[in-house]
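Sorry to interrupt, but I need a hand with the structure work. Go ahead and set the record down below:
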Amino acid sequence: MPHFGPGNRADLSGTRQNSAARPATDLGDQAIERIASMINAFRHADGPAPQKLGAFMRWCLAGTFPTIWLTLAISVIVGLSEIAAAFLVGWAIDTAQGTGPSFLADQAWTLAAIALFFILLRPGLMALNAAMTSVALGPNLYPLILTRLNRYTIGQSMKFFDDDFAGRIAQKAQQTAKALADVVVETCNIFGFSIASAGGAMVLMASVNWRLTAILVVWLFAYIFLIRWFLPRIRVRARARASARAMVTGQIVDTVTNIATVKLFAQGGHEDQGAIKALAKYRRKGLDFGELVVWFRLSLFTMAGFLPAGLIGTTLWLWSQDMATAGDIAMAGLIATRLAQMSGWVSFTALGIFANMGEIEDGMRTLSPTHEIQDRPNAGLPAPEDSSVAFEGISFGYGREGTVALDAFNLDIKPGEKVALVGQSGAGKTTVVSLLLRLYDVEDGRVRLGGNDIRDLTQDGLRSQISVVRQETAMFNRSARENIRYGRVEAADEEVIAAAKRASAHEFILDLEDLHGNRGYDAYLGERGVKLSGGQRQRIALARAILKDAPVLVLDEATSALDSEVEAEIQAALSDVMQGKTVIAIAHRLSTIAEMDRIVVMEAGRIEEEGTHEDLLAKNGLYARFWQRQSGGFLDLKAAE
C-alpha cells in the first residue's frame, strides 16, 4: 500500500466517538451526543489527495456525505415550512373574511393545529436543522479535514518542506480545512432552504394567478444570472487574496523562527520591510476583492427590491380586478418580503462560499502534490536483526541538473561494524545518511538494509531500524520526558530516566523549570528546545536514540556541541550503546573517529580513501593531511582545502 502518512489506522478510525466528549447525563445530552457521533472526526481518507478541485473536496469529505445529504433534506423541509407558514396566514385571512365572527368557533381545532405548527413543529424543525449544522457538521468537519491534510502533508518528502515556508504550509492546511468546512455548513444552511422556498413560492403564486409566477420566474433568472456572473470572479480574487495572506504568514513565521539571527545581525528593520512588502501585496489583493464585493452586493440588493414591488403591486392589481383575495395579498406580501430578505443573506452566504472555494483551490495547489517518496504496493517490514548497510552504485544530485552530491558511490558496512565518514563540507557525507533514511530517493543505484533494497521496505519500518543523532538536534515544545520518549513512545518513565542517565542528561533535567512551574522531566523545553544549551539539546537527543535502541545507529556530529568534560561522559555512554550495533558516524572530533573500525574519506561525492586510522596515516594521503592540520582535538577540514 502506498505511504500516505504515518500512524496506525486502527487507533481512531475504529471509533465514532470523540475521546474528549463529555458523558451524556440526560435525554437531551444523549440526543446531542448521538448527532455529534454521526461523523467520525478522525477517519482516514483512502488514497492520495487529488489535484482537481471537485475530487479534492470529495477526498477531504469522504465518509460524511450521508450526514450532509440528511442535513440538506432537513433544510429543504424547513424551507417548505416557511411557505406553509405564508399559506396558512393567507388561508386564515380568507376564511375569516368569508366566515365572519363565527370563524373562531367553527375553525377552533384547525386553528389549534396551526398554532401547534407555529409553536412546536416549525421551531422543532429549525432546531433540528441547527443541530445538524452546528453539532453534526460544524465541530466534526474541521478536525476531519485538517487531520487528513496534516496526515498527507507529513508523508511528503523532505524536498517538499525544503522548498516552502513551514508557516505557509501550516497556514494553508488550516485555511483549507476551515474554508471547506464553512462551504459545507453554509451550503446546507442556505441551498436546501432557498430552493425549497423558491419552489414552494412558485406553486403558491401559480394557485393565485399565472402572472405572479411569471414575475417570480423572471426575477429568479435575473438573480441567478447575477450570481453566475459575479461569483466565479469573486472566487478568482479570493484565491489570489488567500495566496497573498499565506505569504504574509510565511514571512512572519520565518522571521520569528530565526529571531536570534535577526537580532545578532541587527536586521529588524530589514525584516520589517519584508513584512510590509508582503502585507502591501495582501492589501492590494484585498482591495481588489472588496471592490468586486461592493458591486455584487449593490446589484443584488437592487434586484431584491424589485420582487416585493412586483409581487405585491401585481396582487393588488389582481385584487382590484376581483381576481385575488385579501388573503392572497397577505400571502404574496409575506412571500415577497421573505424571498427578498432571503436573497440578501443567500447572496452574502454565496459570496462567502465562493470566496472559500478560492481559498480551497489555493490550498489544494500547495497541499495535494503527489508524494515523491511512496511505499511500494508490497513493501514489507525489515527483520529485527537487519543491520547490514550497503550503498551500490549511488549517483545522486537532489534532482538538479549539473549537481553531483554522490558519484558512483559504493560502500558495504557489515552488521556491527562502526564506520566513520570524513571529508570536507559538501563531500556528500550527510547525503549518504539522508539516502539511507530514504529522506530522498536515489536517482541511480540502490541502498540495502539487511540485504533488502530499502525501497522494498515501508518507510516507517526502515526508519524504525535506525537511531539518529544529528548535529542540529530537533526538540519539540513539549516536556523533557516527551522529547526523550519520542524515541519509543510506549516506554515507561523508568526507561526514560535510565536513557537520560546514560546520556548524562539526568542531572540538568532535574534542574529544569518552565514558565508554568513544571519542573524536571515535566518541564517544557520551548520551541525547538530554545531553553536549552546546544550541549543539553544533544544530550536529550542522545537519550532519545538510546531509548529507541535500534540496530543501526547514525551519529551526525553527535558530540559537536559538547564541552570536553561532558564529551568524555558521552563517549563512555556511546561506547556502551554502540556495542553490537552497526554505526555510521559523521564526525570531526578525534575521540569519535578513533573508536571506529573503519574510516571512509570522501571528496566530491566519491570515496577517496578508507581504512583504519593507522592505515590512513601510513598512506600519507588526504586523511593524513587532515590529521596534520588538526587543532585542539578537531579535524580542521577547512584548512585542508
Observations:
- The beta strands are 389-396, 406-413, 418-423, 444-449, 452-453, 466-469, 552-556, 582-586, 598-603, 606-611.
- The radius of gyration is 34 Å.
